[in-house]
Write a structure and sequence with these properties.
- The protein is an alpha/beta fold.
- It contains nine helices and 14 strands.
- A hairpin with a 4-residue loop joins strand 4 and strand 5.
- Helix 2 packs parallel to helix 9.
- The protein is globular, with a radius of gyration of 18 Å.
Length: about 260
């Protein structure tokens, strides 16, 4: 049994998900292997994308490795952040010029600065919105996400958060986005936990990604980078690939 841990945005979903990809994933699973999505998105969002796009998947690893959900929609593992640090973190993000904090809790919600009138906002991107004054006590959250308008600004926010809160949080840049998880969490750690759940070994894991938040899993395991991905990930990976279907075809041929 082998495990493919695939990023979603820019990787599996690069140029959409067509029948070629669906057939490749089906062949991989029929051969007795595991296919897992490993994403910075909330695990419920990853699961919903799988349903909407109609492709096979055995596990959903959300919040950059913090949460694992099985095919029966059961959360089988979660690495939760310190509840007392949520408000200080979001306050600091606003000091750095960020305009919103997206919190991954049981579901997910937005937190805005006090000068934003949340009654005027569209709520199609998350179920709820709060300001720092109105946010309830949150005993469970696994990730806080924000963004900046340029790659350089996003990199600076990531560095500043790591400098100030490195004991508590691991900020990971994903393009213009910054995903902030517990200090000991990343996509590689999530895959190690998945290995334990399915009884796999290190040599059974294959990863594929395209962006900076995929760094840890690309560095740690046998890995592919998308040809369309950022150069630093392509330089790090063992191989490059035009897509997940081509990766699967190659891996099945070598087994």
């Amino acid at each position: 049994m082998k495990i493919i841990g695939s990023d979603f945005d820019g990787t599996l979903n690069h140029n959409g998900i067509d029948d070629t990809k669906r057939r490749a994933i089906e062949a991989w699973r029929k051969a007795g292997n595991v296919f897992a999505l490993v994403s910075g998105r909330h695990v419920n969002s990853v699961r919903d994308l799988h349903i909407q796009q109609n492709f096979g998947c055995d596990y959903f690893v959300g919040s950059n490795g913090a949460v694992i959900m099985d095919a029966n929609n059961q959360v089988v593992h979660a690495d939760v952040c310190d509840p007392s640090m949520l408000v200080p973190l979001i306050e600091y993000l606003y000091e750095l010029g960020c305009s919103v904090g997206l919190v991954h809790s049981v579901d997910f919600f937005d937190v805005f600065p006090e000068n934003v009138d949340i009654s005027t906002l569209k709520r199609d991107h998350s179920p709820d919105s709060y300001t720092l004054k109105s946010i309830p006590a949150i005993p469970y959250y696994t990730q806080v996400s924000t963004w900046r308008p340029t790659f350089e600004e996003a990199a600076l926010v990531s560095a500043k958060v790591r400098e100030k809160f490195g004991e508590y949080f691991n900020p990971m840049q994903n393009g213009l986005n910054i995903d902030i998880v517990r200090a000991d969490v990343n996509k590689a750690k999530g895959l190690y936990r998945l290995m334990e759940l399915v009884g796999a070994t290190y040599d059974d894991v294959i990863t594929v990604g395209d962006n900076v938040n995929d760094y840890d899993m690309i560095k740690e395991f046998r890995s592919y980078a998308m040809e369309s991905g950022v150069q630093s990930i392509k330089d790090l990976a063992d191989f490059t690939t035009p897509g997940v279907a081509e990766l699967i075809e190659r891996e099945l041929a070598e087994r």
